[in-house]
Structure formats: structure tokens, C-alpha cells
Amino acid sequence: MGTRSLLWDITKKYLTVGLVGLTISDRYASIVSIRGSSMSPAFNPGSDTNDYVLLEKFCLDKYRFSDGDVVVFSSPNNHKEKHIKRIRALPGDWIETPNLDVLKVPEGHFWVEGDNSVSSLDSRSFGPIPLGLIRGRVTHIVWPPKRMDRVERETNQRLSPIQDRPKFY
Amino acid sequence: MPPPPPWLSVFPFCDSRLVRTQQTTFQIDIASDIVSSMVVGSLKLWTDLVVEGFQKSLRVGKFLCLLHAIDTYVCTPVLPYGPSMLPTLNSTGDLVLVERVSTWLGKVGRGDMVLLRSSEDPRKTLIKRIVGVEGDTVTYLVDPKYSDASRTCVVPWGNVWVQGDYIYNSRDSRTFGAVSYGLVEGKLFWRQIWPLKSFGSLHGKAKEDS
């Protein structure tokens, strides 16, 4: 009887901790690791270590984002895969696609590109992505300690939405 | 050491070591002791209250966490609104349960009614029926109200094709194209208690319709 109640106590404790952790990671913030070099030099500048980053979820209430935010989203082709990229354009912006077309990002979608455009699978291959697939915004690097820092919002001039295009596009 | 005077038991807060002093200072001592013990007593009361309140709110917090987990991973109630699913769901006043498990397992297929996040406005959710899954060829009427022109397309990998049951007034994949599976949030499985005659599982109905 004693061992049973002890086991029950331990299970209850673990269950509670798990539930609280789950809620926090779903609603407020979680920590994820980044694999691959598609976002270097901002993340994973050396190829041997993985960066751990803080992912905040408050932005999912209103789905308000801005250019240059780093977001984690599930891939439009495979919902089990998560990608981390930088937002380049939001609904209504004009964007230059690789085959030199100019495209208006449709309502409720966004355009992402990796910082390291050489090895990055992003909107240039699968087009604009629905905002509903975003799973969070990256705000801080938490590991390794020497690179602990805020993640800056960075708008690259070359890739930024084209402002001075004629209106008839 | 002299024995404590008998009246000392009236003041349960003082102890016998005070009895050594002279009469006058003795009384002052007793008085200050009573005051300080009252302060200590009320402080203890307050700490007890704070601790109890903390424990209570912790319990409420845990309960909310449990609610969140059930809502996100097991099932959630939804109030559908709008005419797009008309013969199956009323345009207003129904309450349906949406389960998340089969979405999570990837077991959502043709004929299932699903709750999905709109790809046009991520703050909205829609209820539609899946007509085709990835790789299917879907033929649909472009605008059944005014013409019978139809169009055929292939659903891309990782996407589903959703349509409302009432195709004359439904904004669905025919306007915004196939939607990514990641936007599907759950499968409708139970129509709710009210009105009573429509109480029951939606499962058989989905089979009939598809």
C-alpha cells in the first residue's frame, strides 16, 4: 500500500509538472534547437554546434509580425517539419521572385527567406506561406552562453519589399 | 528560582523568567510581552492566509493547465456559424465537439469535416469538409450559382482540398486553393446536446455524404 501511494504521488507530481510545462511551452515561450546552416551567420555560424533559441508565442494571439522577424513555421508541404526563416514580406507587399517576376504577397500569407540564401529552402521554392502555419517568433539565443543575445530584426535592403515600383503591378 | 505566581496562568503568553524582576517593571514587561505576542500571532495568521491563498491559486493554475492541455490535444467545443455547411450543420445555434487526436496522428481523410485555420485570415477558423487529400484529382464546379463550368486540378503534396457542403454559398478551396495540412486543427466528431434531436455522432453522416 505504501509503495503504491508513493508511486501515485510521484506520477501525480510528474504529470503536474508536464502539464504546466506543456501549457507554458504552448502559450508563452519554449526553447528549440536549430539544425542546419540556412540561417547562418545569425544562427549556427559554425557547422558543428546547434544553437538553442527562445521562441515566444504571444505573437500568435493577434498574428502581428513585421519585416525581419525570425519565425518558426511548419512546412507547407509537410506539417511535421518545422522551419526557421526570416520574414521578408507581409500581406500586400511586393516581392521579387527568383525568376525576376514581381509578386504581391496574398492576404494572410507571408514571404520568408533564409539568411544564407545559398543553402536555404524557403519561399523562393514553395511560394508564399499562410500565416496560420507560424508556430512562434524567435527572440533570444540562449545557448551556447557566449552567443547569448537578442535576435535582431534585420531588414536586408536587397531583399526588402520593393517600394518604388510603378502602381500598375 | 521562585515558583511563578498563580495568576500568571491567566496570561498564557508570558513565561516564568519574568517573575524575577521588581513589581513595576514586571508589569511593564508583561504588557509589552502580550503586545508583541499579539503581533506575532497576527503575523502568523497573515502568513497562514497568504500560504493558503497561494496554494489555492496554484491549484486553480494547475486546473487551467489541464484544461488547456485537453483543449489543445484532446477535444474542444466549437460554435459553427454561417451557411456553408448547411444540410449537415445549421447556420447558427449548433455546438459541436472537435477532436484533435486524429489530426495529430494524420488520420484525417476524404469526407471528414474539419476545423481549419483560414489561410486568408489566420485569426479566423473555418469548418469545411475534406474533398481530396494530397495527390488526388479534384473536379469542382467553379461557380455553381451561375454556371456549370467545372475545373479539375491535382491537390499538391502536403495539402488538402476542402469545400463546404452548401457549395452555392461557401468560401473554400475553390477560391483560395488547396490548404496546407498544417492548418487543419481538428476533426468534427460529435454534434452537441442541443437541439436534442440532432444529438449524436457525426461519423455516419460523413460516410453517407461522401
TrEMBL record, chain A:
It is found in: Mitochondrion inner membrane. Pfam families: Peptidase_S26. The keyword Mitochondrion applies. GO terms for cellular component: mitochondrial inner membrane peptidase complex. The active site is at 38, 85. Keywords: Hydrolase, Membrane, Mitochondrion, Mitochondrion inner membrane, Protease, Transmembrane, Transmembrane helix. This is Mitochondrial inner membrane protease subunit 2. Belongs to the peptidase S26 family. IMP2 subfamily. Transmembrane segments: none annotated. Gene3D superfamilies: Umud Fragment, subunit A. It comes from the Eukaryota. It comes from Rhodamnia argentea. Residues 10-99, 104-143 form the Peptidase S26 domain. InterPro entries: IMP2, LexA/Signal_pep-like_sf, Pept_S26A_signal_pept_1, Pept_S26A_signal_pept_1_CS, Peptidase_S26. GO terms for molecular function: serine-type endopeptidase activity. GO terms for biological process: protein processing involved in protein targeting to mitochondrion; signal peptide processing. It is a single-pass membrane protein. The keyword Protease applies.
From TrEMBL, chain B:
One of its GO terms (molecular function) is serine-type endopeptidase activity. It comes from the Eukaryota. Belongs to the peptidase S26 family. IMP1 subfamily. Residues 63-140 form the Peptidase S26 domain. PANTHER family: MITOCHONDRIAL INNER MEMBRANE PROTEASE SUBUNIT 1, PROTEASE FAMILY S26 MITOCHONDRIAL INNER MEMBRANE PROTEASE-RELATED. Its main location: mitochondrion. One of its GO terms (cellular component) is mitochondrial inner membrane peptidase complex. This is Mitochondrial inner membrane protease subunit 1-like isoform X1. The active site is at 84, 128. The gene is LOC115727996. One of its GO terms (biological process) is protein processing involved in protein targeting to mitochondrion.
